[in-house]
Design goal:
Carbamate kinase; two-stranded antiparallel sheet; globular; alpha/beta; 9-stranded mixed beta sheet
């Protein structure tokens, strides 16, 4: 991976966090040693669609859980932000004519449904997880408290952050950048349907050009749809790199974590 930020020792809020290993310039790291200690994985709601057109594909959720299990087994601490587009999105056609705040609240609840579905799949894969919701609903999820989230992660649990930021007008991409900054993640990994960032939609335009690396400001200037401007700006301000990769390619998550040049890197 071009210019990844090597893990640095950091003050723990409840335990020690050793520094990560030095990344390799090319090829796979020996013994699959990760170059990041703590990451934030962003999954769109569409990632849970799998082969379906609506809702949650349980088989694909199980596939995601296994990918995450293998990554976690490498010693990587992980938080996950999941979207809700497979069920409802506040800016979708289904929300046309609705009050924007109400529509966004419905979208937040959709992310909670997805968070619970992902938790179920991951726990069946043998992973300890906690769902933390930005909208309080104690019967189904813990309320999001930053220090509690960090403590869960330090204890080896995977924290699933649901309900976005808890506020309307902010996307789950922005929630991912915010939570990554709060938990002191070293990188955001965004799993999508394509293998990186292109100058146009590669699913519609075969001639689309892929970027192996691109600057934050160029993503904004060119209006690339990888993440919204607020999310990119927040990542840029906090010098938080982003890797966009194909979530449907088996083993790609581990390859990103071991420093391979997979997908597209967004950085300064």
């Amino acid at each position: 991976m071009a210019k990844p930020r090597p893990a640095q020792p950091r003050k723990s809020q409840g335990g020690s966090t050793p520094p990560g290993s030095k990344p390799r310039e090319g090829g796979r790291a020996e013994a699959l040693k990760p170059v990041y200690k703590r990451v934030l994985l962003k999954l769109s709601g569409e990632a849970l669609l799998g082969a379906k057109t609506f809702g949650i594909d349980r088989a694909f959720a199980d596939y995601l859980a296994e990918e995450i299990r293998e990554a976690h087994a490498m010693g990587v601490e992980m938080g996950i932000v999941v979207g809700g587009g497979n069920i409802f999105r506040g800016v979708s056609d289904a929300a046309y004519g609705m009050d924007r705040v109400s529509a966004d609240h419905m979208g937040m609840l959709a992310t909670v449904i997805n968070g619970l579905a992902l938790q179920d799949a991951m726990e069946r894969a043998g992973l300890a997880t906690r769902v933390l919701s930005a909208i309080e609903m104690r019967q189904v999820a813990e309320p999001y408290i930053r220090r509690r989230a960090i403590r869960h992660i330090e204890k080896g649990r995977i924290a699933i952050f649901a309900a976005g930021t808890g506020n309307p007008y902010f996307s789950t991409d922005t929630a991912a950048a915010l939570r990554a900054t709060e938990i002191k993640a070293e990188i955001i990994l965004k799993g999508t349907r394509v293998d990186g960032i292109y100058d146009m939609d590669p699913l519609k335009f075969p001639q689309a050009k892929k970027f192996s690396e691109i600057k934050y400001i160029d993503v904004i200037k060119q209006g690339l749809k990888v993440m919204d401007k607020t999310a990119i700006s927040l990542a840029m301000e906090n010098k938080l790199p982003i890797v966009v990769y194909n979530i449907k390619k088996k083993g790609f998550l581990k390859r990103v974590l071991t420093g391979e040049k997979v997908g597209t890197l967004v950085c300064d």
